Amino acid sequence: MKDVLDFENTEIAFSNKSNRQLRKAKILFSIISFEWLIKIAKPITNLLLHIHFPISPILKHTVFKQFCGGETIAQTESTINTLYDNGGVYSILDYSVEGKGDERFFENTVNTLSRVCDYAKHSIKTPFLVFKPTGLGRSAIYEKVTSNVELTESEQKEWEKIVERFNLICSSVAATDNLKIMIDAEESWLQGAVDQLVEDMMVKYNKIRTVVFTTLQMYRLDRLTYLEHLNNLGIQHGIKIGIKFVRGAYMEMERERAELKGYKSPICQDKASTDLNYNTAVSYSLVRLHLFELFIGTHNELSCQILMRDMIEKGMKTNDNRIWFGQLYGMSDHISYNLAKNDYNATKYVPFGELREVIPYLFRRAEENTSIGNQTSRELNLIDKEIKRRRKNQIV
Ligand SMILES: Cc1cc2nc3c(=O)[nH]c(=O)nc-3n(C[C@H](O)[C@H](O)[C@H](O)COP(=O)(O)OP(=O)(O)OC[C@H]3O[C@@H](n4cnc5c(N)ncnc54)[C@H](O)[C@@H]3O)c2cc1C
Description:
Layout: H1 10-13, H2 19-32, H3 35-50, H4 56-67, H5 73-87, E1 90-95, H6 103-120, E2 128-131, H7 139-146, H8 153-174, E3 180-183, H9 188-205, E4 212-217, H10 223-237, E5 241-246, H11 251-261, H12 271-286, E6 292-297, H13 301-313, E7 323-328, H14 333-341, E8 346-352, H15 355-371, H16 373-392
Parallel strand pairs: 1-8, 2-3, 3-4, 4-5, 5-6, 6-7, 7-8
The structure holds flavin-adenine dinucleotide.
């Protein structure tokens, strides 16, 4: 397929990076390309933090700076401004504190989301909110509801609290003029409960405009069928269906659990099948834009090219407000910035949170960049290309 857009334009891709920042990014991606280093760095970092060894400044000026916007909403503002003012890229503030399964943490997440909502509704630079369902309630509760296990009285209360939190956040977003909210997808054994809840939210809040977006992980074998179900839900209730399409982040865990528990893995057998599923789902939705609004959360260039080609074939404007592209902050700037330069709706998830609290998120990013080997070498090649271009033009 002939490319619609040249993602290799590194001048645009790195227009917001100084020479110094480029060199720092090069060093960082070179380091995280060593799988063994990331493997040993994780326990060592956790240990050093545990014994209060002063490692925070190092982390802050390296991985944190590369992959996070700041520790607070206020600190993240300059990242939001740089992305939008220099590149036309929208930000999605992502409170990236994970894995604390207690009520205080869940309440704190709700309060933080409420503050993000108050901030984002006043700015055209931040069109979406996002949250992870396990930020609002315990995994064990989602798991039980997904597998139809009867809840105890206190678990039932916890579930009701989760429903209340979903409602609180979604209704606050619905009450704004044009903010939208995306709900991330979790592991398949939790996702049944999330799907049901998000469907309820869409039925409630997507009558007039697309407020709530669900997430479909297209590495799952059952998701094309689920997409048809969502299509029918939209018709049945006369609502818009917002969907973020991703490939899925928990492949290894899904396969390991299936093997351990002796059921058939719910994940596509190979990468090509996931890719096919992904692109088929996006095409399916694109011909049903009277119902669907799409958010393509991917660092895959071909999936972006296919969608852009299909939009052209349908005679759509590049910035049609029913189509959004999204990448993670610190990764694949060449996609985000080139999309935005050509007037597509390009967004970045911009993680924020206290340094100590976002360490798990940072390690997931480092591991992802290591395990998706060509992701790192692609970043490195592009950085090298830009450094050479600047040298040649005596910009360095
Ligand atoms: C903005 C944004 C939001 C995201 N939100 C979520 C979310 O809510 N939930 C979530 O789970 N993930 C989420 N992700 C992560 C996403 O699911 C992918 O893990 C990640 O983006 C890599 O996939 P890709 O399409 O970018 O790129 P690619 O590099 O083309 O694809 C890699 C992906 O392909 C799949 N894959 C790789 N090898 C195989 C194989 N052998 N067999 C089958 N499939 C394979 C895996 O899903 C892998 O992650 C998000 C990503 C982005 C950019």
